[in-house]
Amino acid sequence: MDDPRVLFDLTGRVACVTGASSGLGRRVALVLAAAGARVVGVARRAEALAELKAEAGENVETVAADVADRSGIEKLVDQIAQPFGAPDIVVHAAGINTREVADDVTAQGWDQTLALNLSAPFFLSQAMVPTMKSKGWGRIVNFASLQTTRAFPGGIAYGASKAGVGQLTRAMAEAWSSHGITANAIGPGFFPTELTQAVFDDPDRAARNAAQTCTNRNGRLQDIDGPILFLCSPASDYVTGQVLMVDGGFTAK
Fold it and tell me: How does residue 199 score in pLDDT terms, banded at 50, 70 and 90?
C-alpha cells in the first residue's frame, strides 16, 4: 500500500483563498501553504494581507481586491494567476453577515450579502474553471454555514445566501465534476472570528451555543485544518457536491 499521507500532499498545486485576511480564510491559507501549495490570498485589507504573507513566507502571495465587484472579476483572475500560475484550488471564505432582522432588512444590506456570499463564489469559480478543465483536475470549496439549514435571529439575508451556497455547491458539482473538478462546501459552526465577534463577546450566548453541540464546545481555528485539507487534496477525489458540517455536531441535535 502506498503511503496514505501523499493523499493530502498539495506540493505543486496553486490555491486561491478569498477572505484570507482574517478568521477561517486566513487559517485556510496557512494550512494549504503548510501542505505544500502555493497560495494566493485575496481580501480587501492590504495591511492584514501583508501580515499573512509575513507569517507564511514565500509560498504565499496576496492580492488586495473586492471579490464582490463583478465587473473586476477578469482583472482579478489575471492578478491571482501572476505569482504562481492559474489556481487548481479555490476556497471561497470571504463572507459578510449584516445581522439585520427581517423587518429592518435594507436593499443595500441584502444586495451586499448576496453579492459577497453567493454571487462571488460562482463568478470567480466560473472564471477559473477553464484552466482547471484543461488540467483535468480542480477543487472548489465554498463556505456554507449553520444557517444553510437553520434559521437564526437577524439572519434572513445571510441565511438565504448560505442556503443558496448549499445548492450552488451541488449545481457546481453537476456542471463540472465530469471534468475532474470537485465542488464541496465547509459548513462551520461557531468559531472565534471577526464575523462571529458579537457572539463571543457575549459569554452567556457563547456558552449556550457550545451546549448546543455534541462536543460541548465551540470551534477552534485548528478544527478546520483537517476538513479543508481533505476537500482540497486528492484524498477527496470521489467526493463532490457535499456540504461537510464542521460544527461539533450542532446540526446533529
Answer: confident
For 73-122, write each residue's pLDDT tens digit. 999 999 999 999 999 999 999 999 999 999 999 999 999 999 999 999 99
Q: Is 238 an active-site residue?
A: no
Which DSSP letter does residue 101 get?
-
- pLDDT number for residue 4: 83
The sign one gets for the Cα dihedral 45, 24, 125, 51 is positive
Closest CA to 96 of 234, 17, 196: 196
Q: Can you spell out the DSSP letters for 117-134?
A: IIIHHHHHHHHHHHHHHH
Q: Tell me which of 122, 123, 158, 230 is the catalytic residue.
A: 158
Residue type for position 159: G
Please report the pLDDT score of residue 37 as a whole number: 98
**Cβ(253)–Cβ(194) below 8 Å:** no
pTM above 0.90, yes or no: yes
Domains and CATH numbers, the chain: 4-246 (3.40.50.720)
**Cβ atoms 11, 36 nearer than 8 A:** yes
Please list, residue by residue across 68-95, b when 16 or more beta carbons sit within 10 angstroms of its beta carbon and e when fewer do.
beeeebeebbebbbeebebbbbbbbbbb
